[in-house]
Amino acid sequence: MREFNAVVLGAGGVGKSALTVRFVRDVFVENYDPTIEEEYRRNIEVDGQLYSLEVLDTAGAEQFTALNEVYMKSGRGFILVFSLTQEASLREVDNLRQQIYRVKGGNTDVPIVVVGTKMDLVNEREVQRNTIQDLATRWALPFYETSAKRNWHVNEVFEDLVRQMRDRYPAD
Ligand code: GDP
Ligand code: MG
């Protein structure tokens, strides 16, 4: 079975842990400790093939620190998370995206998925679909709107990333 790793990055409170734990444990955690950084592993089937995926849920408090750079160096795929209810968190995604490319030595051929969370909080929504659609087009990155609470489109995110990693990294 081929193995890949994914690093989940984004501002604090956007729902990185909720998304990760929904994917690996299929439950919604309401109050996950924001300081906890944890590595999970789950098998995932993509196009009839089983993959082992390691997911690193970062604590989100160390933007632009050496630690982030370490994760970016060792990460093969990245999930850049913002909250649809918090416009400012989208700018953090842009920063992280650029930082990844810098850390990868200017290489933009890096598997990345952009994820907007908390899709269920319709009344608190600040980021409109066309805004993120335009940005994702400009960045040439796939993007998904999700809800970890309702389990909307969570698996698609990870499947997309595995597909990108499968195509980007030839079997070693
Ligand atoms: P992190 O700091 O990025 O890891 O964010 P968390 O995963 O800890 O989530 C921060 C807060 O947002 C928590 O109170 C979660 O319950 C809430 N949250 C996360 N995802 C969702 C979601 O999909 N829907 C709703 N309604 N709340 C969410
Ligand atoms: Mg967290």
Outline of this structure?
The protein is α/β, with parallel strands linked by helices. The protein has 5 helices and 6 strands.
Structure description:
The chain is of the alpha/beta class and 172 residues long. It has helices spanning 16-25, 66-74, 88-103, 129-139, 154-168; strands at residues 2-10, 38-46, 49-57, 77-83, 112-117, 143-145. It has a six-stranded mixed sheet, sandwiched between helices. Strand 4 (77-83), helix 3 and strand 5 form a beta-alpha-beta unit. The termini are close together. The mean pLDDT is 94. Magnesium ion (MG) binds at residues 16-17, 32, 34, 57, 60.
* N-C termini distance: 11 Å
Helix segment count?
A: 5
Hetero groups: guanosine-5'-diphosphate, magnesium ion
Order of helices and strands: EHEEHEHEHEH
**Poorly predicted runs of 5 or more residues:** none
Main sheet summary: 6 strands, mixed
Structural class: alpha/beta
Helix content: 25-40%
- Give average pLDDT, whole number: 94
Q: How many beta-strand elements?
A: 6
Large-scale geometry = globular
Q: Output the strand order for the largest sheet.
A: 2-3-1-4-5-6
Residue share in β-strands = 25-35%
Calculate Rg over CA atoms.
Answer: 15 Å
Name a few traits of the molecule.
single chain; 172 residues; 5 helices; 35% helix; globular
